[in-house]
Automatic annotation (TrEMBL):
<keyword id="KW-0547">Nucleotide-binding</keyword>
<keyword id="KW-0342">GTP-binding</keyword>
<feature type="domain" description="EngB-type G">
    <location>
        <begin position="54"/>
        <end position="233"/>
    </location>
</feature>
<dbReference type="InterPro" id="IPR030393">
    <property type="entry name" value="G_ENGB_dom"/>
</dbReference>
<protein>
    <recommendedName>
        <fullName>Probable GTP-binding protein EngB</fullName>
    </recommendedName>
</protein>
<keyword id="KW-0479">Metal-binding</keyword>
<dbReference type="GO" id="GO:0005525">
    <property type="term" value="F:GTP binding"/>
</dbReference>
<comment type="function">
    <text>Necessary for normal cell division and for the maintenance of normal septation.</text>
</comment>
<dbReference type="InterPro" id="IPR006073">
    <property type="entry name" value="GTP-bd"/>
</dbReference>
<dbReference type="InterPro" id="IPR027417">
    <property type="entry name" value="P-loop_NTPase"/>
</dbReference>
<dbReference type="GO" id="GO:0046872">
    <property type="term" value="F:metal ion binding"/>
</dbReference>
<keyword id="KW-0460">Magnesium</keyword>
<dbReference type="InterPro" id="IPR005225">
    <property type="entry name" value="Small_GTP-bd"/>
</dbReference>
<dbReference type="GO" id="GO:0000917">
    <property type="term" value="P:division septum assembly"/>
</dbReference>
<keyword id="KW-0717">Septation</keyword>
<dbReference type="Pfam" id="PF01926">
    <property type="entry name" value="MMR_HSR1"/>
</dbReference>
<dbReference type="GO" id="GO:0005829">
    <property type="term" value="C:cytosol"/>
</dbReference>
Amino acid sequence: MNEKTKPAKKTPAAGPKPKAAPPDGKKKALDPKQIVHADFLAAAAPGSSLPAPTMAEIAFAGRSNVGKSSLINTLVERKGLVRTGATPGVTRQINLFEARARDGATFHLIDLPGYGYAKRSKAERTAWGDLIEGYLRGRITLAALVILVDVRRGLEEDDLELIQFVEEARDVQRRPVEIVIVATKADKIGRSASRSATAAMAKSTGRKVIGFSSVTGEGRAELWALLRKVTLGTPEATSVVKDPEPEPA
Ligand SMILES: Nc1nc2c(ncn2[C@@H]2O[C@H](COP(=O)(O)OP(=O)(O)OP(=O)(O)O)[C@@H](O)[C@H]2O)c(=O)[nH]1
Ligand SMILES: [Mg+2]
């Protein structure tokens, strides 16, 4: 049936009344924690550095191709913000993004190049290793480190070494970095398999493990709520280089 042969729509007067918009005061409240703005700010490759730290940062680490960049896109609900790809080794720099929630809370999100990608030259791997380690050791505003693992593979040697590295890199100048483990690509296995895999990881590490999928969005709300909590709970959550509030005239 084409447009012309379609019967005319019935007037609503004949049927039940359409629901009226709720009066202003009764509108469904918008989620104050929802990220309403996200943007790329800066990048650093070996030999260059990020801008000086100004606010709480959440970094994302994990093996190449595990889904770090996809997770950031999912978290900020912006499909194309961060470049992703089917082959490992897509992210080749430290990329810094800014995300602002509706309530004004602002966070810096750091997408790290993946590790464990054997096809890189040894020199390149060393340079990147130094870059990432330098960031994790020295970034004074680093509040949380999200370590992504493939739910089907679990924690591997590289991941455990990273956890140990961050724990040992405690700095008197900053609060301990909160480590959050995310078991991603949960959509690739059934819900109950994913649940038991995350539970096993939680048991073996003694840490919270969140099941996640960038395809279905599973775990997004839980992860964001946790990251907000751990980030805002640290003194670094507020700007280090704060603009002084203007005095009222
Ligand atoms: N099924 C499924 N695929 C995913 C998920 N997350 C990421 N992918 C896919 O996995 C591939 C790698 O994703 P990226 O986000 O680029 O991975 P990355 O960890 O940033 O990779 P590098 O930058 O190379 O370290 C892409 O093809 C994504 O579409 C997920 O939750 N489920
Ligand atoms: Mg990436």
